[in-house]
Write a structure and sequence with these properties.
mainly alpha, 8 helices
Length: 165
């Protein structure tokens, strides 16, 4: 990517994602000064890593989220030696995903389309229709252990498609 194209891309990323990054960091870090530093570091990492970003591996939003989440986790790790951490520190179940919900849903839909019909049906019935695996087994006239295997295999395939779960 040429320098001018790279600058335009970074400007677009900054305008689109910086407010979301700030919102996420503010929800996780109580110190406004520390939050500003973390946000600046996140955007610097995004800028430096942009040439190596591979859209085939993850969406831009997912990639930026991973950088932001890791920056906040690193912030708490560095402070751990000095003070006791609150139990509400960020973790894999961060609500940051709601900020990028549209990108995440698009990525999930793409991954679901790659599953076998059986795997997709079990995943959708279980997670979106809130059916138990036993209920799914009963309605499909299959054994519970077989449905559990299909469910586990489907989750593994989703995990490999999405990269994180």
């Amino acid at each position: 990517m040429k320098t001018n194209e790279n600058d335009l891309m970074m400007e677009r990323i900054y305008k689109e994602y910086y407010p979301k990054v700030v919102g996420y960091v503010r929800s996780k870090v109580s110190s406004p000064d520390d939050g500003e530093d973390i946000c600046s570091n996140i955007m610097m990492k995004v800028m430096k890593g942009l040439p190596g970003f591979d859209p085939a591996k993850a969406s831009l939003a997912t990639w930026i989220f991973a950088i932001a989440r890791n920056a906040v986790i690193d912030y708490y790790r560095q402070r751990k030696a000095y003070e006791e951490l609150d139990e509400n520190i960020p973790c894999a179940s961060d609500d940051f995903e709601t900020i990028f919900k549209e990108d995440a849903l698009e990525e999930l839909a793409h991954a679901l389309r790659k599953l076998s019909e059986q795997e997709r049906t079990v995943i959708v019935l279980h997670y979106y229709r809130n059916m138990t695996l036993k209920d799914i087994a009963s309605s499909a006239n299959m054994s519970y252990s077989n449905i559990k295997k299909i469910h586990a295999r489907g989750l593994l395939h989703l995990k490999s498609e999405i990269g994180q779960f």
